[in-house]
Specification:
6 strands, 9 helices, about 290 residues, 6-stranded mixed sheet
Length: about 290
Protein backbone atom coordinates (compact mmCIF):
# COMPACT_ATOMS: atom_id res chain seq x y z
CA UNK A 1 0.00 0.00 0.00
CA UNK A 2 1.09 3.57 -0.71
CA UNK A 3 0.59 6.69 1.35
CA UNK A 4 0.85 10.09 -0.30
CA UNK A 5 1.69 13.16 1.80
CA UNK A 6 0.58 16.34 0.04
CA UNK A 7 0.82 20.07 0.57
CA UNK A 8 0.08 23.25 -1.40
CA UNK A 9 1.83 26.49 -2.22
CA UNK A 10 1.66 29.37 -4.70
CA UNK A 11 3.83 31.75 -6.74
CA UNK A 12 3.42 35.38 -7.70
CA UNK A 13 4.68 35.83 -11.27
CA UNK A 14 3.27 39.23 -12.24
CA UNK A 15 5.34 41.83 -10.41
CA UNK A 16 2.62 44.44 -10.84
CA UNK A 17 -0.04 42.29 -9.19
CA UNK A 18 0.60 40.80 -5.71
CA UNK A 19 -1.99 38.04 -6.07
CA UNK A 20 -0.61 34.57 -6.92
CA UNK A 21 -0.49 33.29 -10.50
CA UNK A 22 0.62 29.66 -10.03
CA UNK A 23 -1.10 27.31 -7.59
CA UNK A 24 0.65 24.07 -6.72
CA UNK A 25 -0.28 20.80 -5.04
CA UNK A 26 2.27 18.07 -4.59
CA UNK A 27 4.32 15.89 -2.33
CA UNK A 28 5.61 12.35 -2.21
CA UNK A 29 4.38 8.75 -2.08
CA UNK A 30 5.94 6.01 0.01
CA UNK A 31 5.01 2.44 0.86
CA UNK A 32 2.95 2.27 4.03
CA UNK A 33 5.26 -0.43 5.40
CA UNK A 34 8.06 2.17 5.48
CA UNK A 35 6.18 4.80 7.48
CA UNK A 36 7.38 3.85 10.96
CA UNK A 37 11.01 3.82 9.85
CA UNK A 38 10.56 7.05 7.88
CA UNK A 39 9.19 8.82 10.96
CA UNK A 40 12.08 7.43 13.02
CA UNK A 41 14.65 8.70 10.51
CA UNK A 42 13.04 12.15 10.37
CA UNK A 43 13.34 12.31 14.15
CA UNK A 44 16.97 11.15 14.03
CA UNK A 45 17.94 13.89 11.58
CA UNK A 46 16.35 16.56 13.78
CA UNK A 47 18.12 15.25 16.88
CA UNK A 48 21.45 15.18 15.01
CA UNK A 49 21.04 18.94 14.51
CA UNK A 50 20.33 19.53 18.19
CA UNK A 51 16.55 19.80 17.85
CA UNK A 52 13.97 17.84 19.82
CA UNK A 53 12.67 14.97 17.73
CA UNK A 54 9.16 16.47 17.81
CA UNK A 55 10.24 19.96 16.67
CA UNK A 56 8.47 20.95 13.42
CA UNK A 57 10.24 22.28 10.32
CA UNK A 58 9.06 23.81 7.06
CA UNK A 59 10.65 24.99 3.81
CA UNK A 60 10.07 28.56 4.96
CA UNK A 61 11.72 28.50 8.37
CA UNK A 62 10.52 32.09 8.92
CA UNK A 63 6.87 31.02 8.58
CA UNK A 64 4.83 32.82 11.24
CA UNK A 65 2.91 29.73 12.30
CA UNK A 66 6.14 27.75 12.63
CA UNK A 67 7.82 30.47 14.66
CA UNK A 68 4.83 30.73 17.02
CA UNK A 69 4.88 26.96 17.54
CA UNK A 70 8.30 27.21 19.16
CA UNK A 71 7.01 28.05 22.62
CA UNK A 72 6.80 26.41 26.06
CA UNK A 73 3.15 25.58 25.28
CA UNK A 74 4.49 22.91 22.89
CA UNK A 75 7.45 21.88 25.06
CA UNK A 76 9.80 23.89 22.83
CA UNK A 77 12.33 26.64 23.52
CA UNK A 78 11.66 29.88 21.55
CA UNK A 79 15.44 30.29 21.11
CA UNK A 80 15.38 27.20 18.89
CA UNK A 81 13.36 29.14 16.30
CA UNK A 82 16.34 31.45 15.78
CA UNK A 83 18.73 28.49 15.67
CA UNK A 84 16.47 26.76 13.14
CA UNK A 85 16.95 29.55 10.61
CA UNK A 86 20.72 29.30 10.96
CA UNK A 87 20.82 25.58 10.11
CA UNK A 88 17.94 25.64 7.61
CA UNK A 89 19.87 24.83 4.41
CA UNK A 90 21.75 21.83 5.79
CA UNK A 91 18.71 20.55 7.68
CA UNK A 92 16.42 20.75 4.66
CA UNK A 93 19.00 18.97 2.53
CA UNK A 94 19.44 16.09 4.98
CA UNK A 95 15.69 15.68 5.47
CA UNK A 96 14.96 15.60 1.74
CA UNK A 97 17.73 13.02 1.29
CA UNK A 98 15.51 10.61 3.26
CA UNK A 99 13.11 10.37 0.33
CA UNK A 100 15.58 8.40 -1.78
CA UNK A 101 16.38 6.21 1.24
CA UNK A 102 12.73 5.15 1.35
CA UNK A 103 12.21 4.82 -2.41
CA UNK A 104 9.69 7.68 -2.51
CA UNK A 105 8.00 8.98 -5.66
CA UNK A 106 7.49 12.74 -6.03
CA UNK A 107 4.55 14.33 -7.85
CA UNK A 108 3.98 18.03 -8.45
CA UNK A 109 0.99 19.53 -10.24
CA UNK A 110 0.28 23.20 -10.70
CA UNK A 111 -2.10 25.54 -12.44
CA UNK A 112 -0.82 28.73 -14.06
CA UNK A 113 -3.47 31.43 -14.42
CA UNK A 114 -3.23 35.17 -14.77
CA UNK A 115 -4.45 36.42 -11.42
CA UNK A 116 -6.61 39.11 -13.00
CA UNK A 117 -9.02 36.41 -14.18
CA UNK A 118 -12.37 36.47 -12.35
CA UNK A 119 -11.94 33.04 -10.71
CA UNK A 120 -11.54 32.93 -6.93
CA UNK A 121 -8.49 31.87 -4.95
CA UNK A 122 -10.25 28.63 -3.97
CA UNK A 123 -11.15 27.95 -7.63
CA UNK A 124 -7.49 27.99 -8.61
CA UNK A 125 -6.58 25.62 -5.81
CA UNK A 126 -9.43 23.32 -6.78
CA UNK A 127 -8.13 23.16 -10.35
CA UNK A 128 -4.57 22.48 -9.15
CA UNK A 129 -5.74 19.71 -6.83
CA UNK A 130 -7.84 18.07 -9.52
CA UNK A 131 -4.84 18.17 -11.86
CA UNK A 132 -2.83 16.41 -9.16
CA UNK A 133 -5.49 13.73 -8.68
CA UNK A 134 -5.38 13.02 -12.40
CA UNK A 135 -1.59 12.62 -12.23
CA UNK A 136 -1.96 10.31 -9.21
CA UNK A 137 -4.47 8.20 -11.15
CA UNK A 138 -2.08 7.94 -14.08
CA UNK A 139 0.71 6.90 -11.72
CA UNK A 140 -1.47 4.16 -10.23
CA UNK A 141 -2.44 3.01 -13.72
CA UNK A 142 1.19 3.02 -14.83
CA UNK A 143 2.38 1.07 -11.81
CA UNK A 144 -0.28 -1.54 -12.47
CA UNK A 145 0.70 -1.82 -16.13
CA UNK A 146 4.35 -2.15 -15.10
CA UNK A 147 3.46 -5.03 -12.78
CA UNK A 148 3.72 -3.04 -9.56
CA UNK A 149 1.92 -4.51 -6.57
CA UNK A 150 0.00 -1.50 -5.25
CA UNK A 151 -2.88 -2.79 -3.14
CA UNK A 152 -4.17 0.59 -2.04
CA UNK A 153 -3.36 4.29 -1.72
CA UNK A 154 -4.23 6.81 0.99
CA UNK A 155 -3.77 10.56 0.46
CA UNK A 156 -2.85 12.65 3.52
CA UNK A 157 -3.26 16.37 2.80
CA UNK A 158 -2.16 19.28 4.95
CA UNK A 159 -5.10 21.13 6.50
CA UNK A 160 -6.47 23.31 3.65
CA UNK A 161 -6.12 27.06 3.52
CA UNK A 162 -8.96 29.29 4.62
CA UNK A 163 -11.67 29.46 1.97
CA UNK A 164 -10.97 26.00 0.61
CA UNK A 165 -12.47 24.20 3.60
CA UNK A 166 -14.06 20.86 2.65
CA UNK A 167 -14.03 21.40 -1.11
CA UNK A 168 -11.10 19.01 -1.52
CA UNK A 169 -13.30 16.18 -0.26
CA UNK A 170 -15.79 16.81 -3.08
CA UNK A 171 -13.02 16.94 -5.67
CA UNK A 172 -11.67 13.63 -4.44
CA UNK A 173 -15.22 12.20 -4.38
CA UNK A 174 -15.58 12.83 -8.11
CA UNK A 175 -12.20 11.33 -8.93
CA UNK A 176 -12.64 8.34 -6.65
CA UNK A 177 -16.16 7.24 -7.65
CA UNK A 178 -16.46 8.45 -11.24
CA UNK A 179 -13.01 9.39 -12.53
CA UNK A 180 -14.50 12.76 -13.39
CA UNK A 181 -14.47 16.27 -11.99
CA UNK A 182 -17.84 17.13 -10.47
CA UNK A 183 -17.70 20.72 -11.69
CA UNK A 184 -15.22 20.53 -14.55
CA UNK A 185 -16.84 17.38 -15.99
CA UNK A 186 -13.34 16.47 -17.13
CA UNK A 187 -12.72 12.72 -17.37
CA UNK A 188 -9.62 11.18 -15.83
CA UNK A 189 -7.53 9.26 -18.36
CA UNK A 190 -6.93 6.67 -15.64
CA UNK A 191 -10.63 6.15 -14.92
CA UNK A 192 -12.02 6.14 -11.34
CA UNK A 193 -9.44 6.00 -8.56
CA UNK A 194 -11.47 3.33 -6.75
CA UNK A 195 -10.43 0.73 -9.34
CA UNK A 196 -6.86 1.10 -8.04
CA UNK A 197 -8.00 0.47 -4.45
CA UNK A 198 -7.60 4.04 -3.24
CA UNK A 199 -9.03 4.92 0.16
CA UNK A 200 -12.61 6.15 -0.09
CA UNK A 201 -11.83 9.58 1.34
CA UNK A 202 -8.98 12.00 1.86
CA UNK A 203 -7.26 12.29 5.21
CA UNK A 204 -6.36 15.77 6.47
CA UNK A 205 -3.42 16.37 8.78
CA UNK A 206 -1.33 19.23 10.16
CA UNK A 207 2.19 19.93 8.95
CA UNK A 208 3.25 21.25 12.34
CA UNK A 209 2.28 17.93 13.92
CA UNK A 210 3.43 15.45 11.26
CA UNK A 211 6.98 14.62 10.23
CA UNK A 212 6.01 13.19 6.81
CA UNK A 213 3.84 16.25 6.06
CA UNK A 214 6.83 18.40 6.94
CA UNK A 215 8.76 16.52 4.26
CA UNK A 216 5.90 17.22 1.83
CA UNK A 217 6.16 20.91 2.72
CA UNK A 218 9.88 20.79 1.93
CA UNK A 219 9.16 19.10 -1.40
CA UNK A 220 6.58 21.60 -2.61
CA UNK A 221 8.56 24.56 -1.26
CA UNK A 222 11.67 23.45 -3.13
CA UNK A 223 9.70 22.82 -6.33
CA UNK A 224 8.01 26.22 -5.97
CA UNK A 225 11.42 27.91 -5.85
CA UNK A 226 12.54 25.84 -8.84
CA UNK A 227 9.51 27.08 -10.79
CA UNK A 228 10.16 30.63 -9.65
CA UNK A 229 13.68 30.34 -11.08
CA UNK A 230 12.43 28.61 -14.26
CA UNK A 231 9.84 31.32 -14.96
CA UNK A 232 11.17 34.47 -13.30
CA UNK A 233 14.89 33.79 -13.17
CA UNK A 234 15.09 34.22 -9.40
CA UNK A 235 18.19 33.12 -7.48
CA UNK A 236 19.14 29.58 -8.40
CA UNK A 237 21.38 29.37 -5.32
CA UNK A 238 18.30 28.96 -3.10
CA UNK A 239 17.78 25.40 -4.37
CA UNK A 240 21.26 24.42 -5.53
CA UNK A 241 22.20 21.07 -4.01
CA UNK A 242 18.65 20.60 -2.71
CA UNK A 243 16.42 20.38 -5.79
CA UNK A 244 19.01 17.94 -7.16
CA UNK A 245 17.81 15.42 -4.56
CA UNK A 246 14.29 15.44 -6.02
CA UNK A 247 15.15 15.13 -9.72
CA UNK A 248 15.62 11.32 -9.79
CA UNK A 249 12.51 10.82 -7.62
CA UNK A 250 9.90 12.43 -9.87
CA UNK A 251 7.47 9.85 -11.18
CA UNK A 252 8.05 9.02 -14.84
CA UNK A 253 5.97 6.87 -17.14
CA UNK A 254 7.12 3.62 -18.76
CA UNK A 255 8.82 5.65 -21.52
CA UNK A 256 10.74 7.70 -18.97
CA UNK A 257 8.76 10.89 -19.59
CA UNK A 258 8.48 13.46 -16.82
CA UNK A 259 6.43 16.18 -18.52
CA UNK A 260 2.74 15.64 -17.79
CA UNK A 261 3.53 12.78 -15.40
CA UNK A 262 5.51 13.56 -12.26
CA UNK A 263 5.73 17.32 -12.78
CA UNK A 264 3.07 19.29 -14.62
CA UNK A 265 1.98 22.92 -14.66
CA UNK A 266 -1.28 23.27 -16.59
CA UNK A 267 -1.77 26.37 -18.74
CA UNK A 268 1.98 27.08 -18.76
CA UNK A 269 2.19 26.31 -22.46
CA UNK A 270 5.77 27.48 -22.98
CA UNK A 271 7.22 25.78 -19.91
CA UNK A 272 9.12 22.56 -20.63
CA UNK A 273 9.90 21.11 -17.19
CA UNK A 274 12.42 18.56 -18.43
CA UNK A 275 14.28 21.20 -20.44
CA UNK A 276 14.40 23.52 -17.42
CA UNK A 277 15.67 20.70 -15.21
CA UNK A 278 18.45 20.04 -17.75
CA UNK A 279 19.27 23.75 -17.74
CA UNK A 280 19.30 23.79 -13.94
CA UNK A 281 21.73 20.88 -13.82
CA UNK A 282 24.01 22.51 -16.38
CA UNK A 283 24.04 25.82 -14.50
CA UNK A 284 24.71 24.22 -11.11
CA UNK A 285 27.19 21.58 -12.23
CA UNK A 286 30.64 22.25 -10.69
CA UNK A 287 33.16 23.78 -13.08
CA UNK A 288 36.07 21.44 -13.99
CA UNK A 289 38.48 23.51 -11.89
CA UNK A 290 36.18 23.07 -8.85
CA UNK A 291 36.30 19.27 -9.04
CA UNK A 292 38.90 17.72 -6.75
CA UNK A 293 40.91 15.11 -8.70
CA UNK A 294 41.48 11.70 -7.20
Amino acid sequence: MLTGFLDDTEIVVDGDDPTPDIFIFGGFFVRQAYLVDLQRRIAEVKVAYGLPWYAPVKWNMKDKGLQEFYSPDYMLNPDLAVYLRKISDDLRQDLLALLEEFDAKVLISGRYDISRNPATHSDYYAWAFENLLQRVGLMAQGLREQGGEVTGTTLVVDWPQRGIDKSLFNLYYGGYHFGRGLESRQDYFSGPLRQYHFAESLVHGSTLHSGPLQLADLVVGCCRDFLAWAIKGTKIQKIQGIFDLLIPLFYRDAQGRLNGCGFKVAKANNLDIEAKIDEFQQKTRPAPEDVIPF
